[in-house]
Structures are given as C-alpha cells and as structure tokens.
Amino acid sequence: MDIKYMHRALRLAKRGAGYTNPNPLVGAVLVRDDRIIGEGYHEAYGANHAEINAILHATEEVSGADLYVTLEPCSHYGKTPPCAQTILEKGIKRVIVAAEDPNPLVSGRGIAMLRENGVEVITGVLEKESRKLNEIFFKYITTGKPFCILKAAMSLDGKIATRTGDSQWITGECARRQVHLLRHRVACVMTGIGTVLSDDPQLTTRLPDKKGKDAVRVIVDSSARIPLSAKVLNVDSDAPAIVAVTEKAQDKKIRELERMGAKVICMPQTGNGVDLAFLMKKLGEEGLDSVLLEGGSTLNESALRQGIVDKVNFFIGPILIGGDTAKTAVGGRGVASLKDAYRLRNLCTQFFGRGIMIEGYLGTGEEAPCSQD
Fold first, then answer.
1. 58 marked ligand binding residue
2. Three-state secondary structure readout of 48-114
3. CATH code for the domain in which residue 61 is found
4. Is 188 part of any known ligand binding site?
5. Is 368 contained in some domain?
6. How many CB atoms lie within 10 A of CB 257?
7. What percent of the chain has pLDDT over 90?
8. At 173, is the secondary structure helix, strand, or coil?
9. How many H-runs (helices) and E-runs (strands) does the chain carry?
10. Residue 153 marked in a binding site
11. Helices 109-116, 83-90: crossing angle, 10 deg rounding
C-alpha cells in the first residue's frame, strides 16, 4: 500500500518539472483509511512546498492521517516555513518518506524532528525512483555544480550530419518534442560557436500543448566570433544569453554583445578552447543547477574529456548516412585504447516514434531506475 501512494506522489512531483529549479521536485499525498484526502506538489521556486499544498487541498481534517512525501520534509526557514513543524501542528500521525534530503540544512533533521515528537516515520519507500527524479537537485545541492546532460541526435551509423553538413532532420517529431521537454526541465542549454555558425539555432523551448520555460542560452565561443545577428542573441525570451569567451576575444566585440543584453563571461583557456570545468563552476555560482549540452562533435568531445558530463541522451534515427568525412557525435582525436573509452552505466532505452533514445550515466555511482515517462 505504501508503494501505491508513493507512486502517486512521484507522479505529482513531475508536474513541477522546469518550474522549481534549483529546488527539488516533490510530491505529497495525504491518506486516511485507504482514501486519498489531499495531495499536492511543489509547483514553483519560492512557492509552497508539496506537503503544505497537500494539507491546503485536503477535503477533510488531516489530524491522524498518513502523509506520503517523495523527499524529507524540511526543518528550516528558507523561502517558506519548515514543513516538519506544520506536520506536527496538524497532528499527522505517520509520515512515509522516499528519500532523505541531501541539503546540509535538512539532511535528516526533518525526520529527526518528527520522530522526536512522536510521529512514526518510514523511510526508503521508492528511494531510488525519488533520487532519479531529483538527480539534478542531488548533484547541485551537494557540489554546487550543474548536472550536465549531453544530448545528441544521430543516424544508426553514428553520424550527426551528412558530409555536406545537412542535419535536419535525423530524428522524428516525437524525439524533437522530447528534446524540447528536456530544455523545459533544465536551467541552461549550452552549444558551441560551431553549431551557431552552421545551424543558427534559437535554443528556445517550443511545446505543442503548453507554454514551455526557456532555459538560459550558453554559447561557448573562445574568440567571440558569434554574429550579432545570431538567433540565440535575438530571440524573444525572458531567459538571457551567456557567451563564454577567453582572453582571445576582442574587447570591442565583448562590449557589443553586452549592449545587446548578453552576459559575457571570460573563462580560462584550456588547449584551444574554454575551460569547461571552470565554466560549470561559474554557472553553479549563478544559481543554475543543470545544463543540456546541445553542441557539435568538437564541444561534445571537450565536455567528455574535461569530465563535466553526468548523463548522455543519444537519439538515434532509423537512417544510415555514411561518409568518411561526415561528422560523428563525438569528434576530436578520440581515445587511443578501448580501456580509455568513456563507459556508461545504468543504460536504458526509450522509443520515440520510429527512433530510439539511449540513456546512460558517466562515471560510477549508485544505480538508479530508468524513467519510462
């Protein structure tokens, strides 16, 4: 029974995707006598937490009820009062928690407060699913660095464009909609100057059934070659553009970009390009908790080599392109030996129309279940 209601809480939590960053996605369900009497989720950054919304939406008195919540109730004052205190005041008798909050300001304190005041607390119900749902939050709150997803669309033989540079469209409409959902979910979309010069993308969120949230557009451009007419600098969006340059950029061009409203960040140089690890640190300091990397083969290789990628989402279209000079998803020199290859763990697949997406995580760590929705 606990699993049934926690699944409902997790589904509710997903409704906040794209609106709560850098806060977590949290859902809550109030139950009495095997009946749901209230439910809610964290709807937006700075708004009520899920537990409070569940209490506010309750159809009857909540005293003596059970509360299912996907993340440990907070015990400190932040944008809102502590949820643990409200739970005590309302007389809720049992709290079932999916995962402990890794935030150092909470981290077990909410659970301890409830137990010390006579509330029965059960933890670890669908914990892996909760951690998967909040993988962005878990990394950002513990490291201060954004969670980075490397996304690429390629043919079955690994090509991201033909030998002439034609790349639209390798995947179908269903896959492209999923990409826009990813943009809606993250804080930043990052691309390289090569992609801007060849494709002139907007990097905005366009969803057919609802208004999506635009992410901050980050352009990695060591020499500030970006044209002032580029769409990423001129789209009608509330989200700003950030141009990451190095000392190779001319002061005049930097001033022109800033006059257009772009934020220019001068980065240390590594090799011939931007120090991406330093850039991720700077983005984290700006309160940006996640990055969707939509670059070309050069930027993708740099991101992997510099160790900033947490997860890959490779969308594969059912076509073959061929060509020795047609670009692959990861360029550069590549590894010299298979033992040095970038290995993925916790692989899963999803179908989008006639295409397929393969998801996997870089590095080592706890296995998390693959989300199928």
1. no
2. CCHHHHHHHCCCCCCCCCEEEEEECCCCCCCCCCCHHHHHHHHCCCEEEEEECCCCCCCCCHHHHHH
3. 3.40.140.10
4. no
5. no
6. 23
7. 71
8. helix
9. 12, 16
10. yes
11. 20
Residues 39, 77, single domain; the answer is: yes
SS3 345: strand
| Within-domain flag for 52 | yes
Are 180 and 107 in the same domain? no
Ligand-binding site membership of 117 (annotated) = no
If asked whether residues 160 and 279 sit together in one domain, one would say: yes
Please tell me the total count of domains within the chain.
2
CATH code for the domain of 279: 3.40.430.10
Residues 107 and 21 in one domain: yes
Last residue of a domain, one of 136, 168, 185: 136
- How would you label 264-281 residue by residue, b for 16+ Cβ within 10 Å and e otherwise? bbbbeebeebbbbebbbe
How far is the first Cα of the chain from the last one, in angstroms, to the nearest whole number? 22
User: Is residue 254 a part of any domain in this protein?
Assistant: yes
Q: Is residue 371 part of a domain?
A: no
Contact yes or no for 221/243 (Cβ under 8 A): yes
Residues 281-293: tens digit of each pLDDT: 999 999 999 999 9
Taking the C-alpha atoms of residue 13 and residue 19, their distance in angstroms, rounded to an integer, is: 11
* 3 state SS of 352: strand
Q: Are residues 266 and 156 in the same domain?
A: yes
Q: In what order do the strands lie in the sheet with 35-41?
A: 35-41, 27-32, 66-71, 94-99, 120-123
pLDDT grade for 161, boundaries at 50, 70 and 90: confident
CA 213 to chain centre: 13
Convert the pLDDT of each residue in 187-217 to its tens digit.
999 999 999 998 899 999 988 777 789 999 9
**Helix (H, G, I), strand (E, B), or coil: what is residue 236?**
coil
Q: In the structure encoding, which two tokens stand for residue 245, read together?
A: 């340059």
Name the residue range of residue 47's domain: 1-136
Mean pLDDT, residues 169-173: 82
Question: Distance between CA atoms of 9 and 2, rounded to whole angstroms?
Answer: 11
- Distance, in Å, from the CA atom of 343 to the CA atom of 360, rounded to the nearest integer, reads 9
Q: Which residues are catalytic?
A: 51
Q: Is 298 annotated as a binding residue?
A: yes
